[in-house]
Amino acid sequence: MTKKITAFLLFAFFLSCQDDDSTLNLTPPKNFNASKGESSDHIKISWSKEEVAKFYHLYRFDSIEGDFIFFNSITDTVFLDTANYTPEQKIYYKLKSYNSESEQSELSESQYGFLKTTKLPAPIINASKGDFLDKISISWEEIEGASKYEIFRLSKSTEEYLLLAVTEETKFEDFPNSEPGERNYYKLRAISSDNTASDFSSPDFGFFTELIPLDRPINFKATKGDFGKKIELNWTAVPGVSSYKVLRFSDEIDDYEELAIVTKNTYSDESDRVPYNEQYYKVQSYNSNYSFSEFSDIDYGYTSGRNYDLVLEFGAWGDGNGQFRYPYHINLDAEKNIYVSDANTNKIQKFTKDGDFIEVYLSSYAIRSMAFFDNGNVAVARSGNHIISIYDQDKNLVK
Questions:
Q1: What residues contact residue 112 under an 8 Å CB cut-off, 6+ apart?
Q2: CB 59, CB 74: distance < 8 Å
């Protein structure tokens, strides 16, 4: 009986020693690792399961030399740290194996991990070159994921790019304290919502310019009822001017608005208008936004509403060549020359198709009208003697 009791106590002592040995053999987890830039929203910490461990304590710090602080108690072998870290910021971890609250391993060696950086592409910057009189306009395409943009300008004193402005827009206007035509250099970078900056853009330069005054147009005129459906504008061409800006008064805005930019010293306004309704215009010599003149005098015009337009006008009152007292009849020959009979001056005058005087074709008493035959002969009617005379091409009387 004594031998059996002794054997049982020895076996119990053996089991007790086995439990003590398992606690003594509790070691830090193996294959301990933290992810490095694999995800933008978490750091993955993983390790191999310890055979006798029931849970694990995770410690972390943002420096390898700091005091590691208890972070979490975990029963699994994987943990996702979703704290809001700055991308690429190194976060250090250590781990302990636990069998119970009092039975634990030593701390593991440290491992670090960090979040993935989603780097924005560098913007492409464009600076205006002489488009304005007092400013430089800087613009760029929107960068997806950017919350703001930082604009830098080269300092002439330090020869370094210094921060000029921060904006959420895709354009910026700079009013530099420099001379017209002097180059100002800029570069730009995009900033994401987590304050990650893109690389700098390639530099670009811009400059503003000074006003180059031009002579204003003179002799500005608008037609008044000469055309049924349009108003013609014309003025004297200005030497050295490549184009003109035409403006028309708008009742809607109670001011003049740009109608057209033209290269010739004439313009035809064919917009729908109420006949005889006065429309006011002015014109400006215009080479660019920084080279223009004062406005011309204002003139008004109107349409007649007719279905035909005046295409040629010639002659004047009088008895001389190219003049008329009582133009009575008009006709054309085969070459489109124009013949005008005058009942008061008793003559027929011949003009070119452009209205230039050629000759007094025929002088005779009480001439009224004329008609051309296919063979070139011409019939002339007189009212005084009630006679119709026929002449050949050389103006010889045929009958």
A1: 34, 36, 64, 90, 91, 92, 93
A2: no
Instruction: Give one word for 358, left, alpha or beta, with left for phi > 0 and alpha for psi -120 to 50.
Output: alpha
User: Among residues of the chain, what percentage have pLDDT more than 70?
Assistant: 94
Reported as a single tens digit per residue, the pLDDT across 52-110 is 899 999 999 887 777 889 999 999 999 999 998 887 789 999 999 999 888 999 999 99
Residue 230 is predicted with a pLDDT of 94
For the record, the structure tokens of 250 come out as 């708008």
Task: Round to whole Å and give the CA distance between 144 and 120.
Answer: 8
Report CA-CA distances (Å) from 295 to 2, 21, 234, 281, 285.
Answer: 131, 104, 14, 10, 8
300-to-140, 225, 237, 257 alpha-carbon distances in Å: 44, 11, 19, 15
pLDDT of amino acid 176: 95
Q: 206 forms bridges with which residues in the sheet?
A: 184
* 390 phi and psi angles, rounded to 5 deg: -115, 130
pLDDT digits (tens, 9 = 90+) for 23-50: 447 899 999 999 998 888 899 999 999 9
Give per-residue burial for 266-278: e unless 16+ CB within 10 Å, then b.
Answer: ebebeeebeeeee
Over the stretch 131-179, which tens digit does the pLDDT of each residue have?
888 899 999 999 988 999 999 999 999 999 999 999 999 999 999 999 8
CB distance 191 to 150 below 8 Å: yes
3-state secondary structure of 379: strand
Q: How many angstroms separate the Cα of 9 from the Cα of each of 12, 13, 23, 150, 390?
A: 5, 6, 22, 80, 163
Q: Give pTM, 2 decimals.
A: 0.39
